[in-house]
């Protein structure tokens, strides 16, 4: 089978299409003939070598999120899965391939009305957005700012906050065109990356979901209302300055909170149940899945170049040429 591996850490050109033997599922696993493969930010980080300290080495086959048809099951897995179209989470690799292994516990049957491409566009981003808002104790009627809203997690957070009855959903983004697209998904105010602009935007927010972090994170504490909560769910601009909490201390009387959130702390069955609910909601047309572009698996280099260039709104999805 064809797969895409990191042949050399660094630029996208270090990715290579290779031939591998078809994998076979171990106990508790299934083999999936892939139809759609999500390209995530973590894939570009692994490819760059930034996560080498976490055990990723050259030769690694990327890809954590796939949809396709179950071709075989391992010991202890219900054989009725064979032939079913599913969404699955492979973990941190093995997905950029014509055949991929996933734990049976992650499988979700795809509704007949949902394409494999849409399923991977929504997939894990939806669950991160849902639990990120929950971690921030978001309640209906509260105002929300989504910082870095143009990626998979932000797009889902905007939609879930709007559906959840937010009084305002402001977003930061880098272009008016992206702002218009985010408005169609539920954003009420569009700010620039620094959090400025946005006609009639609220002066403060009850909840800030921050996907960006980086040097500018502390300046966003000034945008929290009293008792406001900022939750960092990502760090696309890197870590914040070491003394970032000083801005919060300087406004002690506002009783603000800051937290990080990782979906790794959510029990797997809860993530599974929420992903199932969100896939069902999308199949009913209640949530939009945003696919930036569908590319053949063999063009994974181009997909990563587009990711690195910051030109992706939503998700790039790879499809094996056979599907
Ligand atoms: N918490 C969890 O469990 C979890 C799970 C998976 C991934 N993650 C994390 O989530 C992040 C990826 O999320 P994603 O795919 O939704 O995001 P993304 O698409 O990589 O980035 C989101 C948006 O941030 C904006 N942005 C990029 N660089 C920026 C900068 N230097 N300053 C300000 N804005 C910038 C861009 O939009 P504009 O150009 O429009 O501004 C971009 O579209 C990663 O940090 C990943 O590690 C977290």
TrEMBL record:
- Give the molecular function GO annotations: oxidoreductase activity
Gene3D superfamilies xrefs: Medium-chain alcohol dehydrogenases, catalytic domain, NAD(P)-binding Rossmann-like Domain
- What Pfam families does the record tag this protein with? ADH_N, ADH_zinc_N_2
What InterPro entries does this protein map onto?
ADH-like_N, ER, GroES-like_sf, NAD(P)-bd_dom_sf, Zinc-ADH_QOR/CCCR
Decide whether keyword Transcription regulation is in the record: no
Could you list this entry's UniProt keywords, alphabetically sorted: NADP
For the keyword NADP, the answer is: yes
Protein name stated in the entry: Enoyl reductase (ER) domain-containing protein
């Amino acid at each position: 089978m064809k797969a895409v591996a990191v042949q050399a850490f660094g630029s996208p050109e270090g990715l290579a299409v290779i031939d591998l033997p078809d994998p076979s599922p171990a106990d508790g696993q299934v083999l999936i003939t892939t139809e759609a493969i999500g390209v995530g930010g973590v894939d570009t980080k692994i490819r760059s070598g930034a996560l080498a300290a976490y055990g990723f080495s050259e030769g690694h086959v990327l890809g954590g999120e796939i949809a396709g048809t179950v071709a075989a099951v391992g010991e202890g897995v219900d054989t009725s899965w064979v032939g079913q179209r599913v969404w699955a989470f492979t973990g941190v690799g093995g997905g950029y391939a014509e055949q991929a292994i996933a734990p049976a516990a992650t499988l979700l049957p795809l509704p007949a009305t949902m394409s494999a491409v849409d399923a991977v566009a929504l997939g894990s981003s939806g669950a991160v957005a849902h639990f990120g808002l929950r971690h921030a104790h978001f309640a209906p009627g509260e105002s929300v700012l989504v910082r870095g809203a143009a990626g998979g997690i932000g797009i889902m957070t905007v939609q879930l906050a709007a559906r959840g009855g937010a009084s305002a959903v402001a977003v930061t983004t880098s272009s008016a065109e992206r702002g218009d697209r985010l408005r169609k998904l539920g954003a009420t105010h569009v700010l620039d990356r620094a959090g400025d602009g946005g006609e009639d935007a609220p002066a403060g927010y009850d909840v800030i979901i921050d996907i960006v972090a980086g040097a500018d994170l502390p300046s966003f504490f000034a945008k929290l209302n009293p008792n406001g909560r900022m939750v960092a769910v990502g760090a696309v601009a890197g870590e914040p300055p070491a003394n970032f909490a000083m801005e919060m201390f300087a406004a002690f009387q506002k009783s603000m909170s800051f937290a990080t959130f990782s979906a790794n702390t959510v029990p797997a069955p809860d993530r599974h149940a929420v992903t199932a609910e969100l896939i069902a909601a999308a199949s009913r047309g209640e949530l939009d899945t945003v696919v930036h572009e569908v590319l053949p698996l063999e063009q994974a280099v181009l997909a990563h170049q587009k990711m690195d260039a910051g030109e992706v709104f939503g998700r790039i999805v790879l499809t094996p040429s056979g599907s």
